[in-house]
Amino acid sequence: MGVIDGSEEQARWLDDGEMAAWRSYIEGSALLEHRLNRELQAAHNLSIADYEILVRLSEQPGRQQRMSELARDVAHSKSRISHQIRRLENAELVRRNDCLEDGRGVLAVLTDRGLEVLRTAAPTHVAGVREHFIDLLEPAEKQVLAAVFERLRTRLHDRPDA
């Protein structure tokens, strides 16, 4: 257990197999995100976080979504999403509109220019996802990963502060 030997707290320590799985996930997901981000930055001057926001908005009716819902959907804080939207606004890829339904909310709206940037960047992103992830997996592994991460996503969305 290394530096944690002698801890007085009772913990369910990870066994060797669990630790190997956890570390592989941490390192592999960080490397994958870094690679996909680098490819989008190099080809389109777009971060993977910004790309994800453009994708989410493109999937919404009217290409718009409440900022609070968008933050939840991309697993960002409200302050982080606000900062990202401000940068995307400066690039004229997104604009903010007041929510007419209640007057309190703010909508992020994908602009025509934002949609065009997304359409141009999407093939680069999909090629990277295929090369660095999807094409490395057997069909059964894809099903298992989808089930595992859907369970994780659902649990963490349902219990965000637990």
TrEMBL record:
Which Pfam families does its entry note?
Answer: MarR (PF01047)
List the SUPFAM superfamilies.
Winged helix' DNA-binding domain
Domain (HTH marR-type): residue spans on this chain: 1-154
Tell me which InterPro entries the record gives.
HTH_MarR-typ, MarR/SlyA-like, WH-like_DNA-bd_sf, WH_DNA-bd_sf
Q: What is this protein called?
A: MarR family transcriptional regulator
Per the UniProt record, the source organism is Saccharopolyspora gregorii
